[in-house]
Amino acid sequence: MNSFWENEIVKIAANFSVAVLCMVVFLAIFELVTKYKNWDEIQKGNVAVAMATGGKIFGIANIFRYAISHHESLLSVIGWGVYGFILLLIAYFIYEFLTPKFNIDEEIAKDNRAVGLISMVISIGLSFVIGESIR
């Protein structure tokens, strides 16, 4: 059975499955903490929400890229991926806190693309910092 888990194809499938499952769970968590419904807004054509959500997807995937490339066991990958996501979530709340002149979620819900773009870049940029830190 040990050789089964050492097979490269099995490792790839396991890492992929874990990353996709975590992506779905983490996006659901982001959905809970934002004031808008991501997929409803995207369906309506809200580009700001699409950019912010795309940044979150890229950020989560990038964190898992680092976790997979630097940790052998699947449990370790999950643990570091979850930790990285928590840091990304904290960054989201810090971003909201550091912009007292307006509410980030309200601006993104109103399709303010400038705010959506900054949100996307923050998620992507910090995912590289988080990823490098968890290696």
Automatic annotation (TrEMBL):
Bilayer-crossing regions: 12-33, 45-68, 74-95, 115-134
Subcellular location: Cell membrane
Entry keyword set: Cell membrane, Membrane, Transmembrane, Transmembrane helix
GO CC list: plasma membrane
Transmembrane helix in keyword set: yes
Membrane topology note: Multi-pass membrane protein
Pfam families recorded: DUF350
InterPro entries for this protein: DUF350
Family per similarity comment: Belongs to the UPF0719 family.
Protein's name according to its UniProt entry: Putative membrane protein
Species of the source: Anoxybacteroides tepidamans
